[in-house]
Amino acid sequence: MKLLRGVSQTPFFVGDLKLAENSVSELIAGPISTILKPEGHNFVGSGREDADVRMLGTGRPFYIEFKECIAETISPEQLSTIQNEINTNNPFVRATHLKLLQKEELSKITSLENSAMKTYSCLIWVNEPISSEKLQSLEKYTKEPLVLDQNTPIRVLHRRSPGIRLFYQLVLTTQAGTYIKEFVHGDMGRTEPSLRSLIDNQTADIFELDVIDIDLEFP
Q: PANTHER family of this UniProt entry (predicted)?
């Protein structure tokens, strides 16, 4: 689980500049590395969320491959101790079910990325109130799916901030691979329909986004 925003999944650099001070990979692999003493490690998650998105619920499955270790193995007791240390010593992440994996289990973790349904809680803002009629029209999508035509996103980093922002809470359950931020603001027409188009093209965007559940069973 990732409890705070501003934490990337793995170290995030642009050139020599590290954009996020902390990463899930470093916070979990670091304590384990003190025992295994590897040359390096590879952190593989079942999907990923942006650094500004929290991962709540039961968290996201992952595995870490440690390379060229001095120590040959690590015991379940040591992993349990490390898990407690991780969960006690930092406010950013929580780890559960740390254990050694067999090679055949690794593909299961990566395959979940393309199949698991996810539920999100979004705090969105709009520049004018959404009418009660429009809110009622959106309620039908709690009972029937909304099919999106969604292209690879254009990440618009610098948007002009409006003078008025009104906030609404939105909960979505989506198929794997859905871009939630783009569904809300429309991504310059590259996602159809979008929440923005469903409420008559008001300005709409994400203010805060959380993953609150991934529908999977692991371990």
A: TRNA PSEUDOURIDINE SYNTHASE PUS10
From 48, 82, 50, 87, select the one nearest 66 (Cα to Cα). Answer: 82
CA torsion 133→137→142→143, rounded to 10°? 130
Which pTM does this prediction carry?
A: 0.86
pLDDT, tens digit (0-9, with 9 covering 90-100), for 40-71: 999 999 988 999 999 999 999 999 999 999 99
Residue 155: predicted pLDDT:
60
Q: Which residues are catalytic?
A: 50
Euclidean distance between CA atoms 80 and 41, whole angstroms: 20
**The last residue of a domain, from among 69, 87, 112:** 112
Work out the mean pLDDT of the chain and round it to a whole number. 90
CATH number at residue 24: 3.30.70.2510
Mark whether 153 and 192 lie in a shared domain.
yes
Amino acid at residue number 46: S
Question: What CATH number does the domain containing 196 carry?
Answer: 3.30.70.3190
Summarize pLDDT for 150-180 with one digit per residue, the tens.
887 776 434 445 566 789 999 999 998 899 9
Tell me how far CA of residue 70 lies from CA of 34, 63, 73, 167, in angstroms: 10, 19, 9, 53
Can you tell me the distance from the alpha carbon of 81 to that of 101, in angstroms, rounded to the nearest whole number? 18
